[in-house]
Specification:
The chain is of the alpha+beta class and 101 residues long. The protein has one domain. The chain is built from three helices and three strands. A three-stranded antiparallel beta sheet has the order 1-2-3. α2 crosses α3. The longest helix has 17 residues.
């Protein structure tokens, strides 16, 4: 099953504008001034995509918790192939987030 040992920086994380960056650039932080990720190093990625990446990263702790909750309350009954496939995707994502992939 999935290891519950979260080794990442605790959430919540937020995608916010940094005062010293150009307007419209988002970065990921877990408290005011605590940078977790700057997604603007690659200028070959459009600004909208970089900001979407920041918002996705900011949602990571909540997404991980939601996936863990789904796994906890939805045991896999035999014969449910579609559900098993979805649950395998959730389990793989949680494992990757926890470094167990």
């Amino acid at each position: 099953m999935i290891d519950n040992d979260a080794r990442h920086t605790p959430g919540p994380w937020k995608a916010v504008e940094a005062a010293y960056n150009p307007p419209g650039w988002l970065w990921v932080q877990n408290c005011p001034g605590a940078l977790l990720a700057d997604v603007h190093q690659n200028k070959n990625i459009p600004l909208e995509a970089r900001n979407a990446n920041a918002r996705l990263m900011a949602a990571a702790p909540e997404l991980l918790e939601a996936c863990k909750a789904v796994l906890a309350v939805n045991p896999l009954p035999h014969g449910m192939h579609e559900r098993r496939g979805v649950m395998a995707m959730v389990e793989a994502a949680v494992a990757k987030a926890l470094g167990n992939d």
